Amino acid sequence: MITKTLKTGIALIAVASFSFVGAQEKQDIKPQLKKDKLEIKKDRSERMFKHLDINADNSITIEEFKEKRVKDPSNEEKTEKQFAEIDTDKNESIDRKEFKIYFESNLKPTRIENKINTKNKKNTVEKG
Question: Considering only CA atoms, which of 44, 50, 58 is closest in space to residue 110?
Fold first, then answer.
């Protein structure tokens, strides 16, 4: 009888410790997910900057910006406003730093990022 009780107690301790380790691992993953999302945004902002920087001089002029962004002439004014918003130092060109700050703060998540966010929210609700 004592051995049965001991075996049951040891089994309960083992299950509890695995549960604790699993919960701890999930907590360790969250900062990494945030870091990964930021890396994805950095990569996307860099690709977009290269796309807009037609002459590859590490700055985007209003002409380059319009050439790549304006497909409908009626949207030209909106594009000029967006350019002015990104060009924070008002030197009539956008450098990598300005673009990165704007792009990363205004970037809409991709479908994959939305799926990750949805899964994380579901896991949080199930825990709570």
Answer: 44
Backbone angles phi, psi at 107, to 5 degrees: -70, 130
What 3-state class would DSSP assign to 72?
coil
Q: pTM for this structure?
A: 0.54
Give the C-alpha separation, 2 to 21, whole Å: 28
Q: How far apart are the first and last CA of the chain?
A: 38
Residues 42, 107 contacting (CB under 8 angstroms) = no
Q: Give tens-digit pLDDT for 10-46.
A: 766 766 565 554 555 555 677 776 676 667 666 788 8
